[in-house]
Amino acid sequence: MLITELRPQKGHLVGLYSDGELIVSIDSDIVAEKAIKPMRDYPVETLQELLTQSQLRRAKARALYLLEFRDYSRRDMKTRLKRDEEFDEDSAEAAVEYLTEIGAIDDSRYAENMIRHLISQKHYGRRRIMQELAGKGIERTTAEEALEPFDTDEQAAILDLLQGRFSRDLGDEKGIRRTVATLQRYGYSTGDIYDALRTYGDTLQESRDECE
């Protein structure tokens, strides 16, 4: 195919035109590296290969830029690339594979950081944590290995919540039911919740007895 004109485009792209018709848009660095010139004939296969190389290079650059602001799981990054920049499936996947190879994306590290946040800030239980990790595309085995080092004494965690943020809600039956429902959404089992409630009640009664 005869390329008759090169035109600069947005985002460091160069449009390759044939008789006024845009044929393909290529990263400007690749255009320079491959010495693409107007008034030359290029096979369609060559143009397609240039497009593939351009997409991959741009996908890598975009992903690295996104990682400057926050961490991503493999699946989240792939989804973000396809959504934000409209990279095709192959380019997004290849970019994610490359970033995984160089350690820029690591699902185990991502899971550990996410677990730390969900425990310390959200106060979620194991079941809810596993759900959240699955929602980010973290494989179950990876999630379980990342969660293993963390303290998962769920009754103790529930008791801390009852003595802290939920203490004002436990004065009547309605408040207790609401607290139980909330803790269930946090990922704690009903059995652990009621065991912690009994412990909380016993501790509260002991404190009252001591004051009398």
Question: How would you describe this protein?
Answer:
The relative contact order is 0.07. The protein has helices at about 30-35, 45-65, 75-85, 90-100, 105-120, 125-135, 140-145, 155-165, 175-185, 190-210; strands at about 1-5, 5-10, 15-20, 20-25, 40. The protein has three domains: about 1-100, Winged helix-like DNA-binding domain superfamily/Winged helix DNA-binding domain (Arc Repressor Mutant, subunit A); about 105-150, Orthogonal Bundle (Arc Repressor Mutant, subunit A); about 155-210. A hairpin with a 2-residue loop joins strand 3 (about 15-20) and strand 4. The chain has about 210 residues and is mainly alpha-helical. It is built from ten helices and five strands, in the order ββββαβααααααααα. The strands form two sheets. Strands 2-3-4 form a three-stranded antiparallel sheet. A two-stranded antiparallel sheet has the order 1-5. The chain is rod-shaped, with a radius of gyration of 28 Å.
Question: Secondary-structure map with pairings?
Answer:
Elements: E1 2-3, E2 5-9, E3 13-18, E4 21-27, H1 28-33, E5 40-41, H2 44-67, H3 74-84, H4 89-101, H5 107-122, H6 126-135, H7 140-147, H8 154-163, H9 173-185, H10 190-211
Antiparallel strand pairs: 1-5, 2-3, 3-4
Helix pairs in contact: 2-4, 3-4, 5-7, 6-7, 8-10
Number of strands: 5
The largest sheet, given as strand count, sense and whether it forms a barrel, is: 3 strands, antiparallel
Radius of gyration: 28 Å
Structural class: mainly alpha
Fill in the CATH topology of the largest domain: Arc Repressor Mutant, subunit A
Cα separation of the termini:
95 Å
Q: Number of helical segments?
A: 10
Order of helices and strands: EEEEHEHHHHHHHHH
Reading side by side through the largest sheet, how are the strands ordered? Answer: 2-3-4
CATH class of the largest domain: Mainly Alpha
The CATH superfamily of the largest domain is Winged helix-like DNA-binding domain superfamily/Winged helix DNA-binding domain
- Which percent range describes the beta-strand content? 5-15%
Q: Extract low-pLDDT stretches.
A: none
Q: From the 3D coordinates, which CATH architecture of the largest domain would you assign?
A: Orthogonal Bundle
* Count of structural domains: 3
